[in-house]
Design brief:
Elements: E1 4-12, E2 17-24, E3 33-34, E4 38-43, E5 49-54, E6 60-65, E7 68-73, E8 78-84, E9 89-94, E10 100-105, E11 109-114, E12 120-125, E13 130-136, E14 142-148, E15 160-164, E16 170-174, E17 181-186, E18 192-197, E19 202-206, E20 211-216, E21 223-228, E22 234-239, E23 243-248, E24 254-259, E25 265-270, E26 276-281, E27 286-290, E28 296-300, E29 309-312, E30 319-322, E31 328-332
Parallel strand pairs: 3-28
Antiparallel strand pairs: 1-2, 4-31, 5-6, 6-7, 7-8, 9-10, 10-11, 11-12, 13-14, 14-15, 15-16, 17-18, 18-19, 19-20, 21-22, 22-23, 23-24, 25-26, 26-27, 27-28, 29-30, 30-31
């Protein structure tokens, strides 16, 4: 059985004010409740909606698309700036102080933007291959990038690189993955770096020595994304095998395998309190899981294409999701 709710809300978009219209809510399941409706829909003019990130103070939302990055002022969802690039933006990340925005381009470059002025501060060239992921260290001094080249199954293209943010100097490369690196994340204390790859593994690295400490195996398809819990004791990995796995850190012990998605999972995000894990994927649904028990709490439906990115607001009030080729970003009142 499916439940359909009608709700008419005015949502500020980059084109016009649009009604949300008919919203299909979650199917009734014994372990989950019906999802809450999105309170805002940002309809983008680009070819698709991609990577998402909230500024640490919660007052800006960055959303990537096929022509650059959009900056939305919150609350109010007012589009204040477009950062134009020559191609698609695959990932975005704010520096811890909110002053810089890093964007990962399909042209093999990472760009560092001044958030206040919109000026390009620095460009990091990774080569001819494309950049898939970016993450700032907790102290903001380092930037991790993930990259790949589909034509080079085993090469320096499929690596994690560490950069010095103030100078733009390359500090080193972390090699070991045998296919495209799809995600990178620093632990909250900055001592570990996690990377995900199409080689079906996730890896933990010691940032100081740049050596691997754990290889996490068990997924049977591409590991598409990963995220540390806010306290750094857990790591969640998403996979095209339609599952999410939760691992203990630093031991790398498998705690939960979360099943329910009916298609590849593309993205995962922890709530700021660490109690909820959100996942989204090609089945067009956002699933909310209890971190401690692995129980499915809620399903949020409404996107008409793959859910490509998720981000919780720093205060935990909102969950943002992007719907890839439905060209929308939705802000959910998820509690």
């Amino acid at each position: 059985m499916r439940l359909t709710a009608k709700r008419w809300l005015l949502a500020l978009t980059c084109m016009a004010l649009l009604p949300i219209g008919n919203l299909t809510l979650a199917a009734a399941l014994p372990t989950a409740t019906v999802g809450s409706a999105p309170v805002r829909i940002l309809q983008l003019s680009g070819p698709y909606a991609g990577a998402l990130a909230f500024r640490p103070d919660g007052r800006l939302l960055a959303s990537g698309d096929g022509r650059g990055t959009l900056l939305w002022q919150l609350p109010g969802e007012r589009l204040i700036r477009r950062l134009t690039e020559p191609g698609a933006v695959n990932a975005v990340a704010f520096s811890p102080d909110g002053g810089l925005l890093a964007t990962a381009g399909s042209d093999g470059r990472v760009r560092l933007w001044d958030v206040t002025t919109g000026q390009l501060r620095r460009t990091l060239a990774l080569g001819t291959y494309y950049v898939t992921a970016v993450a700032f260290s907790p102290d903001g001094t380092r930037l991790a990038t993930g990259s790949g080249d589909n034509s080079a199954v085993s090469s320096s293209a499929n690596s994690v690189k560490l950069w010095d943010v103030p100078t733009g100097r390359l500090l080193g490369s972390l090699r070991g993955h045998t296919d495209v690196v799809t995600g990178v994340a620093f632990s909250p204390d900055g001592r570990l770096l996690a990377s995900a790859s199409r080689d079906q593994t996730a890896r933990l690295w010691d940032v100081a020595t740049r050596l691997p400490t754990r290889t996490l195996t068990g997924h049977t398809d591409v590991v598409s994304a990963l995220v540390f819990s806010p306290d750094g004791t857990l790591l969640a990995t998403a996979s095209w095998d339609a599952s999410v796995k939760v691992w203990t850190v630093p031991e790398g012990r498998l705690l939960h395998t979360l099943r329910g998605h009916t298609a590849p999972v593309e993205t995962v995000a922890f709530s700021p309190d660490g109690r909820t894990l959100a996942s989204g994927g090609q089945d067009r649904e956002v699933r909310l899981w209890d971190t401690a028990t692995g129980r499915l709490n809620r399903i949020l439906s409404g996107h008409t294409d793959s859910v490509s990115s998720l981000a919780f607001s720093p205060d935990g009030q909102w969950l943002a999701s992007s719907g890839s080729r439905d060209r929308s970003v939705r802000l959910w009142a998820w509690h």
